[in-house]
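User: Hello! My lab partner asked me to get a predicted holo structure for this protein. The small molecule is flavin mononucleotide, SMILES included with the sequence. Please write out the C-alpha cells.
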Amino acid sequence: MSISEEKIYDLVAVYGSPRRHGNTSTLLSHAVQGAKDAGFSVGEFFLRDLNISPCLEVYKCQQDGECAIKDDFQALRDRILGSKGLILASPIFFYTVTAQTKAFMDRFQSLWVRKYRIDQEQGKRPFKRRGAFVSAGATRGPRLFEGAVLSVRYFFDVLDMELRDSLLCRGLDAEKDVLEHPDYLEKAYKLGYILSSSLADE
Ligand SMILES: Cc1cc2nc3c(=O)[nH]c(=O)nc-3n(C[C@H](O)[C@H](O)[C@H](O)COP(=O)(O)O)c2cc1C
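Assistant: Hello! Below are the C-alpha cells for the protein in complex with flavin mononucleotide.
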C-alpha cells in the first residue's frame, strides 16, 4: 500500500505495531475516536502497510534537507507537517519502539539536518504542533517506557511538536489483552478527545 491521496488532516495517527489489531492499535483507534468526537479530521496510517526504508546515511539531506530515498516517507511527512498534531502508537520491543516506528522516526533526520545544519537554528522554536505517545509492554518494570519516551520526545522536537501526553500501559502481551482493561481504553479515548480539544483552542 502507498499513500495516494493528498488530503490534509487536523490530526495524524500513526500505528507502529506489526499487529493490525493488537493492543496499541486498539488503544490508538480509541484515541482516534475521541479526536473525531471532538470534531477533528484524522488521517490514520499503518506503518506495517507502508514502504518506509530505514535511513541509509546517504546524507544528501545535508545539501537540501531532502531525503534521497523516495518511498512513502515523503507523503507521510507532508501529512504530519500539514497537521496540528500527531498521535504515535508503538509497543515496546526490547525497551524501545518497534523497528517500523524507528525506521519512520529516523527518516526525519532529514528534517533535523534542515533545521539545525542548513537553517542553523539556535535554541528552541515555539511549538507548532502537539502530540501524544501511546505504548504498551508485557512487563511491569518502572523503566519499561524510558527508552521509547526519550526517542519520541526528541523525534517530536524535530517536528516542532510538544509531547503533550503519553498513555503507557503495562502488563499487556497477547493481542487482545487490552480488551480486559476498559480503564486503558477510556484513557485512550480521553487522550484523543483532550488533545484535539486543546488544539482547537489555539
Ligand atoms: C520483538 C519483541 C520484543 C519485545 N520486547 C519487550 C520488552 O522489552 N519489554 C516488554 O515488556 N515487552 C516486550 N514485548 C512484548 C510487547 O511489548 C507486548 O506484547 C505488547 O503488548 C505488544 O503490543 P501490540 O499488540 O500493540 O503489538 C516484546 C514483543 C516482541 C514481539
